[in-house]
Amino acid sequence: MIGILCGQVVFSDGEETLIQTSTGIGYQTYCRYILPEGELTSLFVSHIIRETNEDLYCFKSLREKKLFEILTTVKGVGPKSAFNLVSNVSTEDIIGAVQSDQKKTLTQVSGIGTKAAAQIILDLKGKIQKVKMYSNKPLSPLTDTPSFAEGLGDLSFSRSPSSDHSTSHSSPSEPETLPPPQEILDDTLLACKNLGFQSDQIIPLAQRILRENPIKKTEQLIHLVLKEI
Q1: Which helix (H) or strand (E) holds 91?
Q2: DSSP 35
Q3: What is the per-residue pLDDT across 126-174, written as a single tens digit (0 to 9) for each?
Q4: Fold held by 4-59
């Protein structure tokens, strides 16, 4: 599956974009941004495979890509309708519309009627908040790669000074000091509570995941917890 495309823009008209990678292969994508032809670009991609064709949909941020992908899980909402919605309405407005039952926000674009808007709200109301864990930051051409920590987006959680690895002065030969499991659990609980989840939802699940997996970072535990909720 293709998740990111990096290369030179050969053609772009606000509907489709042709990107030639360093391997010489050119990819035809759906892209609502008009990109300067001849310049380098890096875009997130959702690779949709169907029985008779494959399509690539481009996004500037990981959050847009994930929102598009969760919209395509809704019954009656196809990739083109989901792409049209994400391309014309901001991620924040879509998330807010789902959480507050604002069908009008969703139906302002073609392809999303009243019935589809109601189905989106019904299916995603308890799930769409998770999209905010992903970064809204664009990639820099051919240089940036999305780390998981960057992908946490709006999540914020505190650490004690002793556990802040960024201030560590250990030599390269010394093994990395890992935070204790309780600290990882505490930070995960705080992050998930910031997303609106309750402690009794998170603690048993996080404890089980810690027992069953070699968790070394808080980000790993947050990802696995949110995946199972």
Answers
A1: helix 91-99
A2: P
A3: 899 889 888 888 887 754 444 434 444 444 443 444 444 444 444 454 4
A4: OB fold (Dihydrolipoamide Acetyltransferase, E2P) (2.40.50)
**Domain ranges within the chain, ordered by starting residue:** 4-59, 62-131, 155-163+174-228
Q: Would you state the torsion angle of the CA atoms of residues 91, 94, 100, 105, taken in this order, to the nearest 10 degrees?
A: 140
Q: Token digits for 67?
A: 């929102």
Tokens of 41: 């670009």
Distance separating alpha carbons of residues 54 and 48, to the nearest angstrom: 6
How distant, in Å, are the alpha carbons of 26, 34, 35, 228 from that of 14?
17, 4, 8, 37
The 10s digit of each residue's pLDDT in 47-77 is 999 888 899 999 999 999 999 999 999 999 9
Query: Which of 174, 176, 156 has the alpha carbon at shortest distance from 165?
Result: 176
CATH architecture of the domain formed by 62-131: Orthogonal Bundle (1.10)
Whole-model pTM: value is 0.66
